[in-house]
Structure formats: C-alpha cells, structure tokens
Design brief:
The complex is a heterodimer of chains A (450) and B (309). Chain A is 48% helix and 13% strand. Chain A is α+β, with helices and mostly antiparallel strands. In chain A, the strands form four sheets. In chain A, strands 7, 8, 9, 10 and 12 form a five-stranded mixed β-sheet that branches. In chain A, strands 3-11-6 form a three-stranded antiparallel β-sheet. Chain A has a two-stranded parallel ribbon with strand order 1-2. Mean pLDDT of chain A is 90; it is low at 13-28. By secondary structure, chain B is an all-alpha fold. Chain B has two domains: 1-46; 86-308, MetI-like (MetI-like fold). Chain B is 77% helix and 0% strand. Chain B contains 13 helices and no strands. Chain B has helices spanning 2-59, 77-84, 86-118, 124-136, 139-150, 157-160, 173-197, 202-210, 215-226, 228-243, 247-252, 264-273, 278-308. Classes of the chains: A alpha+beta (450), B mainly alpha (309). At the A-B interface, helix 3, helix 4, helix 19 and helix 20 of A face loops of B.
Chain lengths: 450, 309
C-alpha cells in the first residue's frame, strides 16, 4: 500500500514537473519576451475581437515579443495596487490622463517621450489628446480612443411621435416632453452599478452651459469654481434632472446596457450618453432584430446660444502607459504604437464600435467601408474630431480633471436631489481642487477655442 | 542500615536528576513542537493582519496616496477632515441603523424559525438547507437576483406593481440594501440558534412542561437562557459585521443616491480607489475598527464575568 502511494506520488510529481516545463517553454511564443496588458472585463465577443486583432495581430507582426491580455473587471483597483508595489503589467491601462498623471507623479510610469520621437506620435496624434497625456513636459500616456457625450436616438420612436431628429436644444426638449406625454421615458440612462456615470452629465452641462473655455480657466485656477457661469451650469444640470430628462425616476436603477435595451424596445426616443455606449448597442440593434438602421447618434444640441453648434464634450475611454517597473519597455511601446494606427482602428471598429476611435489627426476610416453600427460610430467620430480640431469642445471630468476633483463631481446627485445648493457644492469642489492643484495633479489641458 | 541507606539515597538522587533532565527535555521538545505547529498561523496572522493593521494605523496620520512611498505626517488632519464631512456623519448614522436592524429583525425571525423547527422532526434538515442557501451564495449573486427580479423597474416585481424601486429613493435605499443582506443572513442565524437549542438539556424542558409551562414559557425560561452564550456571540459578531458592512451596499446602491445609503466601508473605499486618498481611507478604517473592538471587549468582559459566577 505504502509503495503504491509512493509510486503514485512520484508519478504525480513527474507529471506536474513535465506540465510546468511544457508551460514555461512551449507554444508559439517560445524564445520571445513576454508582454502583459490588463484590460477591463469586456464581454466575450469583444474579448475575442481583442484577441484576434490586437494579440494575434501584434504577435504576428514581429518575432521579438509575445503579448498576452488579461481581462479583469476590477482592473483599475488591481493596477493601482500592483503599481504601488512596483509590479503589474507592462502596458498600463488606466481611466484616463488624470489618473495617469497621478501615477506619473509617483514615478510609477515610464517616460514615453523618447518613444514618441521614435514612432512620431506627436505628428500622428491629435494635439489635444497628446498634450493631455503629458506631465511635467514628458509624455506618460496616450488615449486609446476619443469619445463625445452625445445623444443616441431611435428613428422609429421619433417617427411614431411624428417628429424629426431635433437640431436645436428647444426641439430636443420638445421631443422629450412629447415622449413623456406619450407615456415613454423622456430619455433613458442611469448610474446603477457605476456611480461615476454622473460625471458624464455634469461634464455635459459644464461644457454646454459654462463652455469649455470657462472650465479651462477654472482648471488653470484663473477663475474660481464658484464662478457664476459654472454655478449656472450646475443648476441647469439639476433642473434637467428634475424635469425627468435623465431617465426620469429610474436614473439610479438603470445602466447603459439596460438603457440601450429600452431604446431598442422603443420605450424612449433618446439615450443621452457617451459614444462608447455604441459597444452595448450591438446586443439590441442588429441584423437579427432588423433594427440596425433605427439607431442614430448626434452631438448634444448646444444649450448656450453663445457657443458654436455642434459643441462637443470631449473625453477618452481609457489611457495607455508603460509601467516603470517593466523589463520590456521597448516592447510595451511597440504595442502602444501598434494600437495608434489606422489599420488597428479599422479592424477593431469592424466588430467593436464605440471603444476604438483612435485619436489620430488623420482619422482615415471611411464610414462607407463599415456596416452595421460601426458606420454611424465612425461618422460620429469624424464629426467629433473635426469639432476638436476647430476647438469646439468642453471636457469630460473623468479624463481631464484631477482624480479627487473628478470623484467629487460624481456627487453631483447631491445637488440634483436638493441636498446641497449649486454654490455649496462648488465651494466643496474648490477646496478639493486647490489641494490637488497644489500637488501638481492637474493634467495639461488642450485649450478650447470657445 | 546506614550503609544500605546511603547508597540508596545516592542512587535515588542520581536517578531523579536524569529523570528531571528527561522531563525537562521532553517539555522543551513539546514546547518547540508547539511553537512549530503554531508558527505558520502566527506568521500568517502577523503578515496579513498585524502588520497591515499597524500600517493602517500609521497611514491614518499621513497624506499617503496609496501609490508611492511618499507620505507626510499630518497629525490629526485626516480625522478632522472626515469629522467635518457631512457624508461621514451620514455613513456613521447608516452603520448604526444597519446595526439596529441586524440586531433585531434577523435575530427575531431566526429565533422564531429555530423554535418552530425544533419541534419538527421530519423535513428539518431540508428546511435548514433551504434557509442556508442564500448564505452560501456569493453576495454578487444575491444582489443581482434582487436587482433584476425584485427591484428592477422594467420587468421586476416592483416594476410590475408599478412601485418605485427602493434602491432609487434617498429615504429607502439603505433599507433596500439591508433587506437583501438580512435575507441572506437570517437563515444562517436560524441554523446556529437551532443547533444551540438542541443542546438544551431535555430534563429541563420536560421538568418545565410537567410544571405546566406552555411552549412560550418553555422558550422564554428554558431555551433562551440555555442559548444565551450563542446569542451573545452572534450579537457581538453582528456588531462587528455591521460596522464592516460593504458588499451589499456597494453592489446594490454604491452608497447612493446622493450618499443616502453610504456606510463607512463604501466611504473609505471611495477615498482609497477613486480619490487616491489612502490616509483618509485609513482614518475611516480605524473608526470602523474601533466599534468592532468595543464590541469584542464587551464580549470578553461579559464572558469572563459569566465564567467567574
């Protein structure tokens, strides 16, 4: 019996050792340096696209490195913990330039300026996007995609209400009122499961009411956050919310996915949200359902008549940086460069619209080359990029505001629900912002024209 | 006699010394074995509990951002800041409400159900398994079930009844999250209380019954005193868990709307992982631990007093 146990144990150990050795040295990546990217826990179909276009594409494009992507629902938190311990992935995926600058300030990210020169990133990337990734004059992050906070609409619902696609803010509000009278949601959206969704809507009103230039001045510290124009913007967001124009009473119990579902079920004419929500749309607007053509996306109609129209609320979906602790910084830069290309954007957008509007100056993707939802997304991004080049934009807080200030803006629902006044809220923002500004955590901002 | 006694005495002391040495060696060996056996658990506790605990204590007095190693000592600033923040007061109040809810509703329901199951011989095990099911499911599963089937305004029970989901209201959001947590917790209490009640000496129950005590009086004067240590222990655990509440609030309401369901756990989490203010998160963590510590000290004091009686 004892001999049997010993023999079995020995066989087991040999098997484990053999499997370990095979795992370490086998496979297609034999002899290559390993590169790692931690990415958010995207749905399976999108993970497949990522694997095919990024991982397989990059690995086939060279023979020096082997890229592996880990999908992780708690990626932000895990990256924060890993970086603080000088560990983590080679390519650092983050929430945006503001978060990257906080890491850069602590020496956790590598200076990418030499790679920017090597690969010509400054010439290829939109100036505003490139600048947003710099800290202390050096480049630490590049956004993977730009986004605009706009309006998704369902043409079938607009037809049933007997209205056209609105082109002005007044028309837009009229349609929402008509929808409410017809027993529909005025618009759908909500922050269930992710409170920072609030940042989308306060950013939208700061841009559309106060204007990008006023917010730029506040972020530079030349005007206070309690400036009357900003107070008006915060109050306007509260009025908009209380009129039921943000998901009615169900804002805290809806999320983007459910909102897109409700839009496809014709429960509302509009879904106000970031362009990245295109990625949820394909579940509900598709050829199988026969309603792909019903979905459209437009810039949010300009509220302040003194601002140009259309006027964009510019943001990024995520940022890409290089871990200072990485042993393969050259490889990580190679991956980022691979992602900053037309070819990559073209392939990703074929099946994954919403997340990959690579911020290239010459966004050469042709909408006619795409089918399904990728087509309106590419069209929308062309318009956004044109607007950004003209300087007609404000800022998305999650991308451009320092982290604690952005987190404080998440509490805008305290104003919406009448717990504090707009002035009190902004006085609190000013205090937090002053502390972060003193620490140098305000990322460099592209200055808008208006 | 003396000649015979002397060597005997010598031989006795000579035999005692090696025996003492042997005993001392054995005792030392036993002690070393004991230390060796306890060392993995001790080492783990020191590395995973004591060390982070001490670091949390230290960080609470610094402005550490949780990323680098730069941290400045700022005295009581973090505590002053959180005490001046109305959200902290809301969180503390919500934790206390949470505690009151958990010390009453699940305890009462658990005790009643356990008392009913005690008399039921058939199907008792089946009921226990059914009641325990929510407890063994992951919180994220329970939260999703409630969010999609019960609270959902589009297709959920509240939607069908055309009622506003309680997670959306400022006055109801905390109770909405607590309801799900209590739903998952009360079955566990039932099983624990039932186990304790079954340890009650049968002769006491029979004596009370013979003396004419009804079911209520037997429960009140026999079972309840008998399970007092269990009630006490579960009460202390409830106090500790109530101040550590996090998962159901985070999953169902994220502390909203407008901080109405914020508890100290979610409040600290936001500092740590949204604002890069680990110092403040550590300060909130210390306040949370303080209440747990208070409950533990109270429990130890009551237990010792009971033992000395």
């Amino acid at each position: 019996m004892n001999r049997k146990v010993t023999t079995l144990a020995a066989i087991g150990m040999v098997a484990v050792a053999a499997v370990s050795v095979a795992g370490c040295s086998g496979g297609a990546g034999a002899g290559r340096e390993k590169l790692e990217l931690w990415f958010w826990g995207a749905p399976p179909a999108q993970q497949d696209t990522m694997q095919e276009v990024l991982v397989d594409g990059f690995n086939a494009s060279q023979d020096e490195y082997e890229l592996k992507v880990n999908f992780d629902n708690a990626v932000d938190k895990n990256i924060q913990v890993a970086l603080s311990a000088n560990r983590g992935p080679d390519i650092v995926y983050g929430s945006g330039p503001a978060f990257a600058s906080a890491y850069a300030a602590e020496g956790k990210l590598a200076d990418m300026t030499p790679y920017a020169e090597q690969y010509g990133w400054k010439d290829r990337i939109l100036d505003s996007m490139y600048e947003s990734g710099t800290y202390d004059g050096k480049l630490y992050s590049l956004p993977n995609s730009i986004e605009d906070i706009g309006v998704f609409y369902n043409t079938a619902v607009l037809d049933s209400l007997g209205v056209e696609i609105p082109t002005t803010y007044d028309e837009f509000v009229d349609v929402m009122d008509k929808a409410a009278d017809a027993g529909l949601y005025s618009s759908v959206t909500g922050n269930q499961g992710w409170k920072p969704v609030n940042q989308n809507y306060i950013s939208l009103f700061l841009s559309q009411v106060a204007g990008g230039k006023t917010v730029y001045d506040a972020l530079q510290g030349t005007v206070p956050w309690t400036d009357p124009a900003i107070v008006d913007a915060v109050q306007a967001s509260a009025d908009f919310y209380n009129a039921g124009y943000l998901g009615g009473d169900d804002y805290p119990t809806l999320n983007f996915d459910q909102s897109m579902k409700l839009l496809s079920e014709q429960k509302s004419p509009f879904f106000i949200g970031p362009s990245l929500a295109f990625q949820f749309a394909s579940n509900y607007f598709n050829d199988e359902a026969g309603n792909t053509d019903e979905l459209g996306f437009m810039a949010f109609p300009t509220i302040n008549a003194e601002l140009p129209s259309p006027y964009y609320t510019l943001g990024t979906t995520a940022s890409l940086s290089i871990n200072e602790a990485s042993k393969n910084k050259d490889g990580a830069a190679m991956v980022i460069d691979y992602m900053m290309s037309d070819d990559f954007a073209q392939k990703m957008n074929e099946t994954w619209p919403g997340y990959w509007a690579v911020p290239l100056k010459d966004f050469d993707l042709k909408a006619d080359d795409f089918t399904g939802l990728s087509k309106p997304f590419v069209e929308a991004m062309h318009q956004t990029i044109a607007g950004v080049n003209d300087g007609n934009y404000g800022y998305f807080a999650g991308t451009f505001f320092p982290p604690a200030t952005a987190a404080a803006f998440t509490d805008i629902d305290s104003v919406w629900l009448g717990n504090v006044t707009a002035e009190e809220f902004l006085t609190g923002i000013q205090k937090i912002f002053d502390e972060e500004k003193a620490k140098g955590l305000v990322p460099p901002l592209p200055e808008p024209a208006n | 006699m003396t000649t015979t006694l002397a060597p005997r005495a010598r031989s006795r002391s000579g035999a005692t010394r090696p025996a003492t040495r042997r005993r001392s060696r054995q005792s030392r060996r036993r002690a070393v074995t004991g230390y060796l056996l306890v060392s993995p658990a001790l080492l783990l506790s020191i590395l995973i509990v004591v060390l982070p605990g001490i670091l949390t204590l230290l960080f609470a007095f610094t402005d550490w951002n949780g990323i680098g190693f730069d941290a400045e000592f700022i005295g009581l600033q973090n505590f002053q800041d959180i005490l001046a923040d109305p959200v902290f007061a809301t969180s503390l109040k919500n934790n206390i409400t949470w505690l009151i809810l958990f010390l009453t509703l699940p305890v009462v329901i658990g005790l009643l159900t356990a008392a009913l199951l005690l008399r039921r011989k058939r199907m008792r095990t089946f009921y226990q398994v059914v009641f325990l099911m929510p407890y063994v499911l992951a919180p994220v599963v329970n939260a999703l079930v409630w969010q999609t089937i019960i609270y959902n305004p589009n297709g959920g029970v509240f939607g069908l009844l055309q009622l506003a989901p309680p997670t959306a209201g400022q006055s109801t959001s905390l109770y909405a999250a607590a309801a799900v947590d209590m739903w998952h917790y009360w079955g566990f209490l039932t099983v624990v209380y039932l186990g304790a009640m079954r340890q009650t000496p049968v002769d006491q129950v029979e004596a009370a019954t013979v003396d004419g005590a009804g079911a209520w009086k037997v429960f009140l004067h026999v079972y309840l005193p008998s399970i007092r240590p269990t009630l006490l222990l579960m009460g202390v655990m409830t106090v500790i868990f109530s101040f550590l509440a996090f998962d159901y609030v985070y999953l169902l309401t994220q502390g909203g709307p407008a901080h109405s369901s914020e508890v100290m756990g979610t409040y600290a989490y936001a500092f740590a992982f949204s604002s890069f203010q680990f110092g403040k998160a550590a300060a909130v963590g210390l306040v949370m631990s303080f209440f747990g510590l208070l409950a533990s000290v109270l429990y130890t004091w009551i237990s010792r007093r009971d033992l000395l009686r």
